[in-house]
Amino acid sequence: MTAPPDDRGQLDFLQHVQRIFDEGEFVATYKFALLIALVELAIERGDDTGAPLDLDLHSIAEKFIEQYWPHAAPYGAAEGAPAVLVQNHGRQAAIVARVAEARGRFGTLARAKSDNSWRVFVGNIAQIVKEMPLWKLQTLRRRNVPFLYEKSSGPRITLLPGVAFNLRRFGALIQLLARSAWVQHIRANPRNAPTVGGATDLELFLFGGARVDLSAARAALQDMQENRCFYCDSAMRQDPHVDHFIPWSRYPRDLAQNFVLAHSACNLDKGDMLTASAHLAKWVARNRESGADLAARLSPAGFLDDQPAALQVARWAYRQAEATSAQLWVSLKYTVNADRRCLEILGG
Predict the structure, then answer these.
(1) What is the per-residue pLDDT across 15-45, written as a single tens digit (0 to 9) for each?
(2) What pTM did the predictor assign?
(3) What letters, b where the CB count within 10 A reaches 16 and e where it falls short, cover 21-42?
(4) Is the Cβ–Cβ distance between 329 and 274 less than 8 Å?
(5) φ and ψ at residue 28, rounded to 5 degrees
(6) Partner of 72 for a Cys bridge, out of 99, 111, 130, 331, CB 3.0 to 4.6 A?
(7) Cβ–Cβ contacts within 10 Å for residue 176, how many?
(8) Contact (CB, 8 A) for 34 and 133
Protein backbone atom coordinates (compact mmCIF):
# COMPACT_ATOMS: atom_id res chain seq x y z
CA MET A 1 0.00 0.00 0.00
CA THR A 2 1.32 3.44 -0.93
CA ALA A 3 1.76 5.71 2.07
CA PRO A 4 0.18 9.18 2.03
CA PRO A 5 2.58 12.04 1.31
CA ASP A 6 4.27 13.57 4.34
CA ASP A 7 4.13 17.25 5.26
CA ARG A 8 6.96 18.07 2.86
CA GLY A 9 5.25 16.25 0.02
CA GLN A 10 1.96 18.04 0.68
CA LEU A 11 3.70 21.41 0.70
CA ASP A 12 5.52 20.61 -2.56
CA PHE A 13 2.18 19.69 -4.14
CA LEU A 14 0.60 23.00 -3.11
CA GLN A 15 3.59 24.90 -4.45
CA HIS A 16 3.19 23.17 -7.81
CA VAL A 17 -0.52 24.03 -7.86
CA GLN A 18 0.39 27.65 -7.16
CA ARG A 19 2.82 27.54 -10.09
CA ILE A 20 -0.05 26.55 -12.39
CA PHE A 21 -1.78 29.84 -11.58
CA ASP A 22 1.45 31.87 -11.59
CA GLU A 23 3.23 30.38 -14.60
CA GLY A 24 0.61 28.58 -16.67
CA GLU A 25 -0.82 30.15 -19.81
CA PHE A 26 -4.61 30.47 -19.79
CA VAL A 27 -5.89 31.11 -23.31
CA ALA A 28 -9.27 29.58 -22.38
CA THR A 29 -10.90 28.49 -19.13
CA TYR A 30 -10.38 24.77 -19.77
CA LYS A 31 -7.52 24.39 -17.29
CA PHE A 32 -9.66 25.71 -14.45
CA ALA A 33 -12.36 23.20 -15.37
CA LEU A 34 -9.80 20.40 -15.49
CA LEU A 35 -8.44 21.18 -12.02
CA ILE A 36 -11.93 21.18 -10.56
CA ALA A 37 -12.79 17.95 -12.41
CA LEU A 38 -9.71 16.22 -10.99
CA VAL A 39 -10.62 17.34 -7.46
CA GLU A 40 -14.18 16.04 -7.77
CA LEU A 41 -13.10 12.70 -9.23
CA ALA A 42 -10.44 12.26 -6.55
CA ILE A 43 -13.12 12.86 -3.91
CA GLU A 44 -15.58 10.47 -5.56
CA ARG A 45 -13.18 7.67 -6.51
CA GLY A 46 -9.97 8.08 -4.56
CA ASP A 47 -8.95 7.30 -1.00
CA ASP A 48 -6.50 8.56 1.58
CA THR A 49 -3.81 5.91 1.15
CA GLY A 50 -1.62 7.83 -1.27
CA ALA A 51 -2.24 5.27 -4.03
CA PRO A 52 -2.32 6.27 -7.73
CA LEU A 53 -5.76 6.67 -9.28
CA ASP A 54 -6.86 5.74 -12.81
CA LEU A 55 -9.31 8.17 -14.44
CA ASP A 56 -10.90 7.66 -17.84
CA LEU A 57 -11.31 10.61 -20.19
CA HIS A 58 -15.04 9.94 -20.50
CA SER A 59 -15.52 10.71 -16.79
CA ILE A 60 -13.37 13.84 -17.03
CA ALA A 61 -15.40 14.99 -20.04
CA GLU A 62 -18.65 14.49 -18.12
CA LYS A 63 -17.29 16.75 -15.39
CA PHE A 64 -16.51 19.40 -18.03
CA ILE A 65 -20.06 19.25 -19.34
CA GLU A 66 -21.49 19.58 -15.83
CA GLN A 67 -19.35 22.64 -15.15
CA TYR A 68 -20.02 24.41 -18.44
CA TRP A 69 -23.75 23.62 -18.53
CA PRO A 70 -24.81 26.63 -16.41
CA HIS A 71 -22.20 28.82 -18.14
CA ALA A 72 -23.87 28.16 -21.50
CA ALA A 73 -26.98 30.08 -20.43
CA PRO A 74 -27.15 33.73 -21.55
CA TYR A 75 -25.84 36.16 -18.95
CA GLY A 76 -27.00 39.77 -18.84
CA ALA A 77 -26.13 42.05 -15.95
CA ALA A 78 -25.16 45.14 -17.96
CA GLU A 79 -27.14 47.34 -20.34
CA GLY A 80 -26.41 45.11 -23.35
CA ALA A 81 -28.49 42.16 -24.44
CA PRO A 82 -27.90 38.88 -22.56
CA ALA A 83 -25.28 36.66 -24.19
CA VAL A 84 -23.30 33.50 -23.52
CA LEU A 85 -20.02 34.59 -21.94
CA VAL A 86 -16.92 34.12 -24.09
CA GLN A 87 -14.39 31.79 -22.44
CA ASN A 88 -11.53 31.98 -24.92
CA HIS A 89 -9.26 34.77 -26.11
CA GLY A 90 -10.24 33.96 -29.69
CA ARG A 91 -13.59 32.67 -30.81
CA GLN A 92 -15.89 31.00 -28.31
CA ALA A 93 -14.38 27.93 -26.64
CA ALA A 94 -15.45 24.78 -28.51
CA ILE A 95 -16.76 23.03 -25.41
CA VAL A 96 -18.91 26.01 -24.45
CA ALA A 97 -20.35 26.18 -27.96
CA ARG A 98 -21.19 22.47 -27.96
CA VAL A 99 -22.66 22.56 -24.48
CA ALA A 100 -24.77 25.60 -25.42
CA GLU A 101 -26.10 23.67 -28.41
CA ALA A 102 -26.97 20.67 -26.19
CA ARG A 103 -28.56 22.94 -23.61
CA GLY A 104 -30.75 24.50 -26.29
CA ARG A 105 -31.77 21.06 -27.51
CA PHE A 106 -32.46 19.31 -24.19
CA GLY A 107 -32.99 22.07 -21.66
CA THR A 108 -31.66 20.18 -18.65
CA LEU A 109 -28.54 18.15 -18.09
CA ALA A 110 -30.60 15.19 -16.85
CA ARG A 111 -32.52 15.06 -20.14
CA ALA A 112 -29.29 15.26 -22.11
CA LYS A 113 -27.82 12.36 -20.11
CA SER A 114 -30.87 10.19 -20.77
CA ASP A 115 -30.72 10.68 -24.54
CA ASN A 116 -29.17 8.06 -26.81
CA SER A 117 -26.74 10.66 -28.17
CA TRP A 118 -25.16 11.31 -24.75
CA ARG A 119 -22.23 8.91 -25.07
CA VAL A 120 -21.25 10.28 -28.48
CA PHE A 121 -21.53 13.82 -27.12
CA VAL A 122 -19.27 13.00 -24.16
CA GLY A 123 -16.82 11.28 -26.50
CA ASN A 124 -16.55 14.45 -28.59
CA ILE A 125 -15.92 16.55 -25.49
CA ALA A 126 -13.33 14.01 -24.28
CA GLN A 127 -11.42 14.44 -27.53
CA ILE A 128 -11.30 18.21 -27.04
CA VAL A 129 -10.14 17.75 -23.44
CA LYS A 130 -7.41 15.39 -24.60
CA GLU A 131 -6.19 17.74 -27.33
CA MET A 132 -6.42 20.98 -25.35
CA PRO A 133 -6.02 21.21 -21.56
CA LEU A 134 -5.02 17.67 -20.58
CA TRP A 135 -1.47 17.90 -21.89
CA LYS A 136 -1.10 21.65 -21.35
CA LEU A 137 -2.19 21.93 -17.71
CA GLN A 138 1.28 20.98 -16.45
CA THR A 139 3.14 23.21 -18.91
CA LEU A 140 4.76 25.95 -16.84
CA ARG A 141 6.62 28.60 -18.80
CA ARG A 142 6.84 26.23 -21.80
CA ARG A 143 8.32 23.47 -19.64
CA ASN A 144 6.43 20.27 -18.87
CA VAL A 145 6.29 19.60 -15.11
CA PRO A 146 4.31 16.35 -14.66
CA PHE A 147 3.43 16.43 -10.97
CA LEU A 148 -0.22 15.34 -11.43
CA TYR A 149 -0.01 12.61 -14.10
CA GLU A 150 2.28 11.42 -16.87
CA LYS A 151 1.36 11.88 -20.51
CA SER A 152 -0.47 8.95 -22.08
CA SER A 153 -1.84 8.26 -25.54
CA GLY A 154 -4.65 6.04 -24.22
CA PRO A 155 -8.22 6.79 -23.13
CA ARG A 156 -7.26 7.40 -19.48
CA ILE A 157 -4.74 9.03 -17.21
CA THR A 158 -3.28 7.84 -13.90
CA LEU A 159 -2.87 10.32 -11.07
CA LEU A 160 0.60 9.84 -9.62
CA PRO A 161 1.06 8.43 -6.09
CA GLY A 162 -0.05 10.96 -3.51
CA VAL A 163 -1.92 13.17 -5.98
CA ALA A 164 -5.43 11.89 -5.23
CA PHE A 165 -4.66 12.22 -1.49
CA ASN A 166 -3.58 15.84 -1.96
CA LEU A 167 -6.52 16.70 -4.20
CA ARG A 168 -8.86 15.34 -1.53
CA ARG A 169 -7.02 17.04 1.33
CA PHE A 170 -6.78 20.44 -0.37
CA GLY A 171 -9.80 20.18 -2.66
CA ALA A 172 -11.70 23.14 -1.20
CA LEU A 173 -8.67 25.42 -1.53
CA ILE A 174 -7.89 24.32 -5.11
CA GLN A 175 -11.49 24.78 -6.21
CA LEU A 176 -11.61 28.22 -4.59
CA LEU A 177 -8.45 29.27 -6.45
CA ALA A 178 -9.68 27.85 -9.75
CA ARG A 179 -13.09 29.51 -9.54
CA SER A 180 -11.64 32.87 -8.56
CA ALA A 181 -9.17 32.78 -11.46
CA TRP A 182 -11.95 31.58 -13.79
CA VAL A 183 -14.12 34.60 -12.92
CA GLN A 184 -11.20 36.97 -13.44
CA HIS A 185 -10.40 35.37 -16.81
CA ILE A 186 -13.96 35.93 -18.05
CA ARG A 187 -14.14 39.45 -16.64
CA ALA A 188 -10.80 40.40 -18.24
CA ASN A 189 -11.88 39.24 -21.71
CA PRO A 190 -12.75 42.45 -23.64
CA ARG A 191 -15.37 40.59 -25.66
CA ASN A 192 -17.38 40.12 -22.47
CA ALA A 193 -17.29 43.81 -21.47
CA PRO A 194 -20.67 44.73 -23.03
CA THR A 195 -22.33 41.80 -21.25
CA VAL A 196 -20.58 41.85 -17.88
CA GLY A 197 -20.18 45.57 -17.34
CA GLY A 198 -19.62 46.24 -13.65
CA ALA A 199 -21.71 43.32 -12.46
CA THR A 200 -20.88 41.90 -9.05
CA ASP A 201 -22.87 38.67 -9.37
CA LEU A 202 -20.72 37.01 -12.04
CA GLU A 203 -19.29 34.42 -9.67
CA LEU A 204 -22.77 33.57 -8.40
CA PHE A 205 -23.97 33.07 -11.98
CA LEU A 206 -21.04 30.82 -12.89
CA PHE A 207 -20.71 28.75 -9.72
CA GLY A 208 -23.44 29.62 -7.22
CA GLY A 209 -26.09 27.11 -6.21
CA ALA A 210 -28.69 29.83 -5.68
CA ARG A 211 -29.37 30.06 -9.42
CA VAL A 212 -30.94 26.58 -9.40
CA ASP A 213 -34.72 26.42 -9.06
CA LEU A 214 -35.30 24.14 -6.08
CA SER A 215 -39.11 24.22 -6.17
CA ALA A 216 -39.30 20.70 -7.65
CA ALA A 217 -37.05 19.39 -4.89
CA ARG A 218 -39.13 21.18 -2.27
CA ALA A 219 -42.37 19.60 -3.45
CA ALA A 220 -40.92 16.08 -3.59
CA LEU A 221 -39.26 16.37 -0.20
CA GLN A 222 -42.37 17.77 1.47
CA ASP A 223 -44.24 14.68 0.36
CA MET A 224 -41.48 12.23 1.37
CA GLN A 225 -40.85 13.91 4.75
CA GLU A 226 -44.57 14.44 5.41
CA ASN A 227 -43.84 18.16 5.70
CA ARG A 228 -41.63 17.65 8.76
CA CYS A 229 -38.14 19.14 9.21
CA PHE A 230 -35.42 16.59 8.46
CA TYR A 231 -33.39 17.77 11.45
CA CYS A 232 -35.80 18.59 14.30
CA ASP A 233 -38.74 16.51 13.00
CA SER A 234 -41.30 19.18 13.83
CA ALA A 235 -44.01 20.27 11.39
CA MET A 236 -43.09 23.02 8.93
CA ARG A 237 -45.83 25.63 8.86
CA GLN A 238 -43.93 28.28 6.89
CA ASP A 239 -41.89 28.16 3.71
CA PRO A 240 -39.30 25.37 4.26
CA HIS A 241 -35.71 25.47 3.02
CA VAL A 242 -34.15 22.94 0.66
CA ASP A 243 -30.78 22.12 2.21
CA HIS A 244 -27.71 20.43 0.75
CA PHE A 245 -27.02 17.82 3.45
CA ILE A 246 -23.32 17.78 2.50
CA PRO A 247 -22.93 21.56 2.16
CA TRP A 248 -22.70 23.10 -1.29
CA SER A 249 -19.55 24.93 -0.20
CA ARG A 250 -17.81 21.57 0.24
CA TYR A 251 -19.20 19.81 -2.83
CA PRO A 252 -21.02 22.02 -5.36
CA ARG A 253 -23.16 19.49 -7.25
CA ASP A 254 -26.94 19.28 -7.13
CA LEU A 255 -27.28 15.56 -6.47
CA ALA A 256 -30.86 14.45 -5.83
CA GLN A 257 -29.81 12.27 -2.88
CA ASN A 258 -28.09 15.20 -1.16
CA PHE A 259 -31.26 17.26 -0.66
CA VAL A 260 -33.27 17.43 2.54
CA LEU A 261 -36.02 19.80 3.64
CA ALA A 262 -35.60 21.80 6.85
CA HIS A 263 -36.97 24.67 8.88
CA SER A 264 -35.34 27.94 7.93
CA ALA A 265 -34.01 28.28 11.48
CA CYS A 266 -32.39 24.82 11.40
CA ASN A 267 -30.96 25.34 7.93
CA LEU A 268 -29.53 28.79 8.66
CA ASP A 269 -28.01 27.68 11.97
CA LYS A 270 -26.47 24.60 10.36
CA GLY A 271 -24.99 26.77 7.59
CA ASP A 272 -21.96 25.13 5.97
CA MET A 273 -21.40 22.61 8.77
CA LEU A 274 -21.64 18.85 8.59
CA THR A 275 -24.21 17.27 10.88
CA ALA A 276 -23.68 14.95 13.83
CA SER A 277 -24.11 11.18 13.73
CA ALA A 278 -27.87 11.00 14.38
CA HIS A 279 -28.71 13.17 11.36
CA LEU A 280 -26.13 11.35 9.25
CA ALA A 281 -27.61 7.94 10.11
CA LYS A 282 -31.07 9.23 9.18
CA TRP A 283 -29.77 10.56 5.83
CA VAL A 284 -27.98 7.30 4.99
CA ALA A 285 -31.11 5.28 5.82
CA ARG A 286 -33.30 7.65 3.79
CA ASN A 287 -31.12 7.28 0.72
CA ARG A 288 -30.83 3.52 1.10
CA GLU A 289 -34.60 3.15 1.28
CA SER A 290 -35.83 6.01 -0.92
CA GLY A 291 -32.84 7.37 -2.85
CA ALA A 292 -34.00 5.85 -6.13
CA ASP A 293 -37.52 7.21 -5.64
CA LEU A 294 -36.16 10.68 -4.85
CA ALA A 295 -33.99 10.64 -7.97
CA ALA A 296 -36.95 9.51 -10.11
CA ARG A 297 -38.92 12.51 -8.86
CA LEU A 298 -36.12 15.04 -9.27
CA SER A 299 -34.34 13.91 -12.46
CA PRO A 300 -37.05 15.38 -14.76
CA ALA A 301 -36.40 18.77 -13.13
CA GLY A 302 -32.71 18.57 -14.02
CA PHE A 303 -31.17 17.28 -10.79
CA LEU A 304 -28.48 14.62 -11.02
CA ASP A 305 -28.90 11.02 -9.88
CA ASP A 306 -25.65 9.64 -8.45
CA GLN A 307 -26.23 7.86 -5.15
CA PRO A 308 -22.77 6.19 -5.04
CA ALA A 309 -21.13 9.60 -5.48
CA ALA A 310 -23.26 11.10 -2.69
CA LEU A 311 -22.12 8.35 -0.30
CA GLN A 312 -18.48 8.59 -1.31
CA VAL A 313 -18.51 12.37 -0.94
CA ALA A 314 -19.99 11.99 2.54
CA ARG A 315 -17.17 9.60 3.50
CA TRP A 316 -14.60 12.10 2.24
CA ALA A 317 -16.21 15.04 4.04
CA TYR A 318 -16.46 13.24 7.38
CA ARG A 319 -12.89 11.92 7.14
CA GLN A 320 -11.76 15.51 6.67
CA ALA A 321 -13.88 16.55 9.65
CA GLU A 322 -12.34 13.88 11.88
CA ALA A 323 -8.81 14.74 10.75
CA THR A 324 -9.29 18.43 11.58
CA SER A 325 -11.37 17.91 14.77
CA ALA A 326 -14.23 19.84 13.19
CA GLN A 327 -17.47 20.70 14.95
CA LEU A 328 -20.61 18.85 13.81
CA TRP A 329 -24.06 20.43 13.97
CA VAL A 330 -26.66 18.82 16.24
CA SER A 331 -29.38 21.44 16.74
CA LEU A 332 -29.82 25.18 17.25
CA LYS A 333 -26.65 26.55 18.86
CA TYR A 334 -25.42 23.05 19.74
CA THR A 335 -22.44 21.28 18.17
CA VAL A 336 -20.18 18.34 19.04
CA ASN A 337 -16.69 17.24 18.06
CA ALA A 338 -16.33 14.93 15.07
CA ASP A 339 -15.53 11.34 15.94
CA ARG A 340 -15.39 7.85 14.41
CA ARG A 341 -19.09 7.17 14.76
CA CYS A 342 -19.89 9.04 11.56
CA LEU A 343 -17.39 7.02 9.52
CA GLU A 344 -18.78 3.83 11.01
CA ILE A 345 -22.26 4.85 9.85
CA LEU A 346 -20.85 5.45 6.36
CA GLY A 347 -19.00 2.15 6.33
CA GLY A 348 -15.65 3.82 5.82
Answers:
(1) 999 999 988 888 899 999 999 999 999 999 9
(2) 0.85
(3) beebebebbbbbbbbbbbbbbb
(4) yes
(5) -125, -175
(6) 99
(7) 12
(8) yes
